[in-house]
Design goal:
single chain, Peroxisomal Thiolase, Chain A, domain 1, four-stranded mixed sheet, transferase, 2 domains, cytoplasm, alpha+beta, five-stranded mixed sheet, about 325 residues, ACP_syn_III_N
Length: about 325
C-alpha cells in the first residue's frame, strides 16, 4: 500500500560566527540598546562576513538535519531551498545539492520571503503525499545583511543571517495535521527589496534596464498591524483544518520578527508565554531561516519532544502569511 503521510524526522541549523550587538549598532546609527530591546526584543544578530556564502550556511544546516534523520544525502529525492537572498539569482539549491553529494535529488529555490519555510513545508509535503518522493530536505536560509541599509535605523536593527533545515520523510501516519496559506499583493509596498533599473541605451531606440537591488524598505507600523491581525486568524484556520483546539498546541513557533508581535499573537490566541518559542533576542529576524532555526534549537535543547504538536506561522513580504500544524518526529 502506498504511504501518503509525512513525518519531520530531523532538524539542523547554522549561523555565522560574527555577531553585532545593540551596543555596536549605536556606533552606526542614532539608537540605544534600550530602544532596540524594548521595541523589538532583539539584543544581537549574526552577520555573514564577506567570505561566507548562503550555500555554505544552508549546506551545514542541511547536513545536521540529514544526520538527525538517520539517512544519507544519497537517499534524498528533493532539496527545496526557501530563500530571498541566493548567492546566484538563477538559484542556489543546485550548489547545495552538489556540496551535499545528494546526486539523486532534484533541487530548486522558492521565494516567499519570511513565510518561505512554511510555504516550503507545505510544498514539500505535497511531493510526499502524492507518492512521488520519499525523502525531502527543506532549507530556509537568508543573508539579509547583504541588503540592509546600515544607516537606516528602522531596518538595520532588525535583521540577521542564518539557515535552518528539516528532513521530511514518507510515514505511515501523516504528521502535517493542517495548514493555511495566504497572499495579498495589494500590500506589497509595505516591505520591499526592489530592483531599480538604470536606463542603458544599446542602440538608438534600444534601451534596456541595468541595475541592482535597493536596500530593504519597510513600513514597520503596517507590517506590525498586518501580523497581529492576520497571524492569529490563519493559525485558527489551520487548527480548524487539523480538527484541533488552541489548548491542544504544545508550542507556538512564529517567524522571529519582533517580540511584540510574538507576544500579541500569543495573547490573542490565549496561548501561555511558556508555550511560545522565542530566540530572536540572539539572532534577530533571519527571514526564511527563523522558524527552522528556532525549531532546531528547541529540539536540541529537548524542549520539543516526539509527538509534540507545533503551530508554526510565517509572515512577511509579498505580503504572504501562512500556518502549519505538525507533530514532531515519527
Amino acid at each position: 500500500m502506498q504511504t501518503l503521510g509525512i513525518a519531520i524526522t530531523g532538524s539542523g541549523s547554522a549561523v555565522p560566527a560574527t555577531f553585532l550587538d545593540n551596543q555596536g549598532l549605536t556606533e552606526l546609527v542614532e539608537t540605544s540598546d534600550e530602544w532596540i530591546t524594548t521595541r523589538t526584543g532583539i539584543r544581537k544578530r549574526r552577520l555573514a562576513n564577506v567570505g561566507e556564502s548562503l550555500t555554505d550556511l544552508a549546506t551545514a544546516a542541511g547536513e545536521a538535519a540529514i544526520a538527525m534523520a538517520g539517512i544519507t544525502p544519497q537517499q534524498l529525492d528533493l532539496i527545496l531551498l526557501a530563500t530571498s537572498t541566493p548567492d546566484d539569482l538563477f538559484g542556489s539549491a543546485c550548489q547545495i545539492q552538489a556540496k551535499l553529494g545528494a546526486a539523486r535529488a532534484v533541487a530548486f529555490d522558492m521565494t516567499a520571503a519570511c513565510s518561505g519555510f512554511v510555504f516550503g513545508l507545505v510544498t514539500a509535503a505535497q511531493f510526499i503525499r502524492t507518492g512521488v518522493y520519499q525523502n525531502v530536505l527543506l532549507i530556509g536560509a537568508d543573508i539579509l545583511s547583504r541588503w540592509v541599509d546600515w544607516q537606516d535605523r528602522r531596518t538595520c536593527v532588525l535583521f540577521g543571517d542564518g539557515a535552518g533545515a528539516v528532513v521530511l520523510q514518507a510515514n505511515d501516519s501523516d504528521r502535517l495535521l493542517g495548514f493555511e496559506l495566504r497572499s495579498d499583493g495589494t500590500q506589497n509596498d509595505c516591505l520591499n527589496l526592489p530592483y531599480t533599473p538604470d536606463a542603458t541605451e544599446l542602440l538608438p531606440g534600444v534601451v534596456v534596464g541595468r541595475g541592482n537591488f535597493q536596500p530593504i524598505t519597510m513600513n514597520g507600523k503596517e507590517v506590525y498591524r498586518f501580523a497581529v491581525q492576520q497571524v492569529p486568524e490563519v493559525i485558527d484556520k489551520a487548527l480548524f483544518r487539523a480538527n484541533l483546539s488552541v489548548e491542544e498546541i504544545d508550542w507556538l513557533l512564529l517567524h522571529q520578527a519582533n517580540q511584540r508581535i510574538l507576544d500579541a499573537v500569543a495573547q490573542r490566541l490565549n496561548i501561555p508565554e511558556q508555550k511560545v518559542i522565542s530566540n530572536l533576542a540572539y539572532y534577530g529576524n533571519t527571514s526564511a531561516a527563523s522558524i527552522p532555526l528556532a525549531l532546531d534549537e528547541a529540539v536540541r535543547q529537548h524542549k520539543i519532544k516526539p509527538n509534540d504538536i507545533i503551530a508554526a506561522s510565517g509572515f512577511g513580504a509579498g505580503l504572504t502569511w501562512g500556518a502549519a500544524i505538525f507533530q514532531w518526529g515519527r
